């Protein structure tokens, strides 16, 4: 009977030690993730900002091109309207 109780106490102590070591390992991993994860998260955010900036610049360039096209079309239409007005004015005299 004494032998069984010694085995039970030994196994109990081993379980407590094992549990403590697992908790220490989990806390260590958690802290390491905070330290390493922070620069990783910052780098991800920087990458996202750069990607958005490139996308913005591309869209802005497209907008400028479209505005230039619109300006050209307006100028052409204005010239045509002036020609028509002059022509219609001459025929009315």
Give structural notes.
- The protein has one helix spanning about 1-90.
- The protein is mainly alpha-helical and about 90 residues long.
- It is built from 1 helix and no strands.
Low-confidence stretches: none
* Global morphology: rod-shaped
Q: Which structural class do the helices and strands define?
A: mainly alpha
Question: Helical region count?
Answer: 1
Secondary structure blueprint with pairings:
Blueprint: H1 2-92
Quick tags:
single chain, 93 residues, mainly alpha
Write a brief structural summary.
The protein has one helix at residues 2-92. It is rod-shaped and about 130 Å long. 98% of the residues lie in helices and 0% in strands.
